[in-house]
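Homework help board

Subject: predicted structure for assignment chain

Our instructor gave us this sequence and asked us to write out the predicted structure in token form, then describe one feature. I got the tokens but I'm not sure how to describe them. Can anyone check?
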Amino acid sequence: MKQSYTLIKNELLEHKIIIRLPLFLALFTMLVVVLVLSNINNFSFNIQMNGIDGWQPPITASSFAGVVGSVSLFIAGIVSLLSFLLILQGLLQRSVKKVV
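My token output:
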């Protein structure tokens, strides 16, 4: 637990974007909410939810193009997940070497 805390502390000190990016996004979100609520006279919205029963997949696999699209989407998801995990593993190994 102490080693994990030390790693997180070192990452926060070395990479300022870890703090700045969420802070910027929070401030931007609050600004957008204030701007939307300040123009409340002309503002209306409608939310509809059908639940999980009414959900339809965006790609129909009834044709060859639909099947190819589904397969390429699946492969792209796997590749992005693997690349994220490999990059994360490399970053953690480098952090451990710096601490030790």
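Reply (TA_rk): Your tokens look well-formed. For the description, you could write something like this. Helices lie at 2-14, 17-38, 64-99. That's the kind of observation they're looking for.
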